[in-house]
Amino acid sequence: NLPILDSTIFVDFKPWMDQTPITISHKFPMEMVIELFRKMGLRYVLVTKNGQLLGLITKKDVLRHLAAVNYPGSSINREYSQEIQNLRILPSGRRSSFVEDFGTD
What we know:
The structure is a single chain. 35% of the residues lie in helices and 15% in strands. The protein is of the alpha+beta class and 105 residues long. It has a domain at 20-92: CBS domain Like (Alpha-Beta Complex), CATH 3.90.1280.20. A three-stranded mixed β-sheet has the order 1-2-3. Helix 1 links the parallel strand 1 and strand 2 (44-49). The longest helix has 12 residues, at 59-70. It is elongated and about 55 Å long. Residues 88-105 have low confidence and may be disordered.
């Protein structure tokens, strides 16, 4: 039998948490998402709808999106592209300097 843990014991993760994360609406245009990442040096943004968290977009997600838009014949994961469309963050078809500015992780 495992001992019952005291319910008053907890771990404080505040020193490692982002207290003010950047959030965007699920309708936020992908061109603007790319600009945010480029200008602010972001690693991720939280995606919300009516104040509820839907998910997050990472720097790698943006790079994958740009590769899919700029190089449609490449072997980009189709499931990922469908997830982006479900969030209503649709590509504009324009090239971006994001890849040149930031490279990959």
